[in-house]
Amino acid sequence: VALAAAGTLTLMVALPVGFLFPGRTKSVMAIINILFDASSVIPLLFYRLFVAGMSRRAIFTGYAVFLFAVFAADAFLWWRSTPALERLQEKAKKGAAVDESGGEKDEGAGAAGDGGDIELPRGWQQRLLVTTVEASEGGEDGERENGKAEKGEPDLTRFQSLGFLQQIRSVHFAFAATFAVVHVFRSNTYLGTIGLHLDRLGDADYDYAYTQAFQLSLPLSCVALPFIDWAMRRYDYLTCLHGVNMLGMLHGTFTLVPYLAAQPLAFCVYTLYRAFLYAVLTAFHASTFGPGSIG
């Protein structure tokens, strides 16, 4: 339980690193999630070391020493980068919305006076999931590859300047939470039941070779990084999120085929689906809620 909690916390505290590279935020978020996926091969490596004759004490002591060195270096580098991130957070908190005429609105206009109801950016009802204008100066994420954001698309700079409690009462948060709950639960359910599914299909007759192949397939999401990076830069969030839905449906189709030999196809699609899911979700969260709330 402690290892699982520490792994999740490590992912959460790593996400703000993306804001240190305004022009490459989406790419950095994708890399962080793919590295997190690749860590799933560690238990298999431990098992192989144990089978080779290494004791549990030696395995976990060596792992603890390795982690101490890694996190000490990470803490030092994070300490060096903290001023830059604080400047971005301060900028997000102080951001003011710009109306169509180019004039700035009052910074306090983001919330109505009656009970703190949120006044969302103009046009969110129609174009919530399109590419948002990033709260960064000249960042590539603020533009699409085929041109600048169209007129009428929401500028979420003002929304990012709202407090955390106001943000979680918005339709943006409701959508993000619902999408994440459905897909993350689906993904984790597959992770938890794939062993039983393969066993029912006869994996035991092959000395559980398919189960081990599935474990080894998860880090292969690194191969899909160029495709994921290209897709998130080429298409808006609505298209990418539908891409996640389509990959999930394709994976489910292969999983339902009652033949063991068909399951490697499900493994490959699941690896891409899981990597794309987390990369798109974290990029969407970063673009919507800003550096003041992420991580």
From TrEMBL:
Keywords: Amino-acid transport, Membrane, Transmembrane, Transmembrane helix, Transport. One of its GO terms (biological process) is amino acid transport. Residues 96-108 have a biased composition (Basic and acidic residues). Its main location: membrane. GO terms for cellular component: membrane. It comes from the Eukaryota. InterPro entries: MFS_trans_sf, SLC43A_AATransporter. It is found in: Membrane. The chain crosses the membrane at residues 30-51, 58-79. Residues 96-119 are annotated as: Disordered. It is a multi-pass membrane protein. Belongs to the SLC43A transporter (TC 2.A.1.44) family. This is Uncharacterized protein.
